[in-house]
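Can anyone check this?
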Amino acid sequence: MSEPGGEARLDGLRALVTGGSRGVGRAIALKLAGLGASVALSYRRDKEAAQAVCKEIESRGGIAIALPADIRQPGAAGRLAREAAAELGPLSIVVSNAGMASRGHTVVDSTREEYLDQFQLHALAVVELAEAVLPGMRAAGFGSIVVIGSTVTSSLPPNTAPYAAGKMAGQALVRVLALEERAHGVRVNAVAPGLVDTEMGSRLVEANSRRSIADLASTYPFRRVCRPEDVADAVAFLSRRDSYITGHVLVVDGGGPPTTIY
């Protein structure tokens, strides 16, 4: 069933968005809820921001809950998914969005702890989420798992090794898991944005160029940097009940790099 504008409704579906209190995760939670899904969103520290997202969803007639979780800790993602399912019912949509940037060191100067944190957050958490939700999705004959990746896996710039390696591992899991689960009606995809106009994106730009995202807008495709809502639209598209897309990495970068690299 679609809205007049053509977007498929998600009524009756239950979604989990990790890292849903701000930025891209907030936009995804609002988008899925706006299409009718009940949404659980996780946060690590900012409980007030997470609750504000829930209140915004509820003010529009939706259902939302906020759950604390530090997904960098082994096992936390699985516990989160089970708690969300206990609160809302079996999950239909899972969006692995929680992430963090590298500290900006070279391959050999990055610490083992940073590599482990990045792999846990961007790859092993995906495995934990899948372990927790796949039994229910298989039983229902439908499920959508979407991993938020990054175009950094294509450009591989210097001083991003832990982050890039973690994101590449996550996107590899997407392709393998998609083939393993399509017989059960479960679709697994990734959305890979470039620079996004978020707090984390702003810090990245300032650290690399001492400029602001607003300063870069004219050099980017369509004269603007990717917005969180652009990523949310892609996630919603991949989460529709009748999707025929799986094992795909959907790049959301305006068609390529900007005309001037910062």
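Reply from J.R.: I decoded it. The chain is about 45% helix and 15% strand.
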